[in-house]
């Protein structure tokens, strides 16, 4: 019979206290692990999606909204810009690569993006199956879209107006799936790519439409342009030029993501301190439980000394009890954290930013270590008491 | 053989206790008698290596036990001295079998399951082996603590007031068990008591 078994039996004897303490530690760890996992996942996604894009140009409005809609495909676009102006900007010598986007439709919640072949090279897209879109009304779909909609090559589908719901379908034109992308690990997994012409076609008036509509089509519009600079020097001049001399606005993904993150950051920071507070309370609770148990355990410890146990052995006996609680609490907390995130991901609406619990970060190792440290801190004082138990006196006195 | 020579002990704020010299031969059975407060428990604690005397020497089979390093003394006590207290002091979280087996593993010895069972049987506790201490009576618990004291085949069995919290029948029983088991296991026996019921059962007396 080793001390581990003895500690376990002691803990099992006080099931309720043990359970409460484990749960306390687990809660603290679970909250922290959710924070770690969610913020790294969101951070990674933000970074991966904006990796090669220096600037987004679109209609005037909130720059954050422009970035969210054109890069992360979560918010609504700020409006449209005249294709003529866009083209002019795309030919600017400072621009190395410019990719136009025409948004506005969706299929079962997956956004349909009208663009050109520049999009393929910008995101370094690889085909899994079939070919890239070429003609009007051909579409290449992301891997998640394919998995969720069960669309196969050659299948036809109708786009719906708007960015998320399917109430208003464009029944007059059907898209044909020409290819399916390999999983890219970024937002393109959730997109349906086609050419800009297809998007225009969707919105072409039926023949009995009025004059005003005609005009809009003639002055064609797109939603935004994704831009790569030729040289980093343009960072300062180019956006200012766009914002001042045109009717469009330029927004930098790096700046807006950082701003977004600093907004979320306040919340994360608060939660983090809250979790640390819970962990501190759990340490205190484990300490109080062990300390109180020492009064009763004094006899057990004295008996064990009589039976030949050395002082260090009893010291470890008490330490291990504390450590068992906090380490199993930490492990349970990690499991809870991952489970919670998996459940959150399952119920999340926007598939673009979906979180998963099947993801591990190195920081979680620190949580286990934190569990160990809390165990040591909480049990060291009770454990040191084993050195002070006066065996002779404890046992010869009537209990 | 155990020899005790010119032992003295003074507690803080107490008188100095002096103890007459004493030699206990192998397998001898002794009563340690004295009024309350005369120092019976103190002497037993000194003999079992739990309380260092201020002066004097105590040798068990030739070893001066207080010259041993602390850890060795703990091990020595676990292996060669069995102690029975006034209260059984069993570990509540372990069942009867494990309580006895614990004494072996704490003394650094292998657990001998069949010896545990033989001891339990000879004390009439075989069917209680899976029970926990709070499911047994005082008399049964005291017998378990005797089994625990005997498990490692000690050369000395020490009992401090083993009967004072028991009724006549149980006290009678415990004394019989102590004397018989000590003899059967070839251990010397020292019982500290001021219980008159014990006086006529053991012939050798050491008076404080
Ligand atoms: N830990 C201690 N600190 C101070 N004084 C002590 C301590 N233990 C015992 N004493 C004192 O030492 C003397 C001897 O005590 P001891 O317990 O050895 O007596 P005893 O013969 O076993 O008594 P009893 O029959 O009541 O058990 C008593 O006067 C007691 O008050
Ligand atoms: Mg006493």
UniProtKB/TrEMBL annotation, chain A:
It is a multi-pass membrane protein. Pfam families: FtsX, MacB_PCD. It comes from the Bacteria. GO terms for cellular component: plasma membrane. Signal peptide: none annotated. It is found in: Cell membrane. Residues 274-388 form the ABC3 transporter permease C-terminal domain. Residues 18-232 form the MacB-like periplasmic core domain. This is ABC transporter permease.
Automatic annotation (TrEMBL), chain B:
CDD domains: ABC_MJ0796_LolCDE_FtsE. InterPro entries: AAA+_ATPase, ABC_transporter-like_ATP-bd, ABC_transporter-like_CS, ABC_transpr_LolD-like, MacB-like_ATP-bd, P-loop_NTPase. Pfam families: ABC_tran. Residues 2-206 form the ABC transporter domain. GO terms for molecular function: ATP binding; ATP hydrolysis activity; transmembrane transporter activity. GO terms for cellular component: plasma membrane. The keyword Nucleotide-binding applies. The keyword ATP-binding applies. This is ABC transporter ATP-binding protein.
